[in-house]
Design brief:
Layout: E1 3-8, H1 17-30, E2 34-40, H2 61-72, E3 75-79, H3 80-85, H4 91-96, E4 108-111, H5 113-122, E5 125-129
Parallel strand pairs: 1-2, 1-5, 2-3, 3-4
C-alpha cells in the first residue's frame, strides 16, 4: 500500500485541476492505497470554502472532499497565507483579523507550508494538480 499526498493549486470549477485531483484521490483509495494528505495552495484554497453552492446537476467539490475525509481520514490542509489573501479564513483567523465571518470549517484545516514539507517527507508520493 502506498501513501499519497496531493498538492492542489487549482480553484474549483475554473479548470479541471480540482476535479481531477478529487477523482485521482477516490481512485487511489478504491485501489487500496491511502491518500493521507491533500494540501490546498494558491487558488486551490477555494476548495475549502463553505460558501460554495454549485447547481444540483454539478459535482459539489467541497462536499466530495469532505466525504473523502470522512471515509479515508484524509487530512484536508489549507495554506493559511494563501487563504488569508483570498478571504478564506476559519473562525479563529476571522476573530484574530477582526473579520465579521469565516468561510473555512472542519474537516478543512488552515496550516502553514511546514505541513506540506512534512507530507513530502513522510508520504510515498506527492502528486501536484495545477490549473
Amino acid at each position: 500500500m502506498l501513501s499519497y499526498a496531493l498538492l492542489v493549486h487549482a480553484a474549483p470549477y475554473s479548470t479541471q485541476g480540482s476535479l481531477s485531483a478529487l477523482r485521482f484521490a477516490e481512485a487511489v483509495v478504491a485501489r487500496g492505497h491511502a491518500v493521507k494528505t491533500v494540501f490546498f495552495y494558491r487558488d486551490g484554497v477555494h476548495n475549502a470554502s463553505t460558501l460554495m453552492a454549485p447547481p444540483q446537476d454539478e459535482v459539489h467539490l467541497g462536499e466530495r472532499w469532505r466525504r473523502l475525509h470522512a471515509t479515508s481520514q484524509t487530512e484536508l490542509l489549507v495554506c493559511v497565507a494563501a487563504g488569508l489573501r483570498r478571504g478564506l479564513v476559519n473562525q479563529a483567523e476571522a476573530k484574530r483579523h477582526d473579520l465579521a465571518m469565516h468561510s473555512v470549517e472542519p474537516p478543512f484545516e488552515l496550516t502553514g507550508l511546514g505541513q506540506l514539507v512534512d507530507a513530502m517527507l513522510t508520504h510515498d508520493r506527492l502528486i501536484t494538480f495545477a490549473p
